[in-house]
Prior knowledge:
The chain starts with a helix and ends with a helix. It has helices spanning 5-16, 22-25, 28-47, 63-71. It is mainly alpha-helical. The protein contains four helices and no strands. Helix 1 (5-16) crosses helix 3 (28-47) and helix 1 (5-16) crosses helix 4. The longest helix has 20 residues, at 28-47.
Amino acid sequence: MAKTVEDVLHELSSRFLLNVSDEEFRDTIRIGFQMEQAHWWYIDYYSSHVRTGPHVFMPGQGLSRAVVRRVC
């Protein structure tokens, strides 16, 4: 079953941001690292394998912005 953009954003946010401790969540460097991990995970498991799959990189809105908007 193909995943939607919302499915991908949910998976990325739960995998890389929602399980971060409160202390780590206040650390911008740590969040930046988590976003980098989410980015590479997305590249490795979605965009490079599924040409017609969900693409989170919409014009004017990057992957990080989309994931953060989902969490906040």
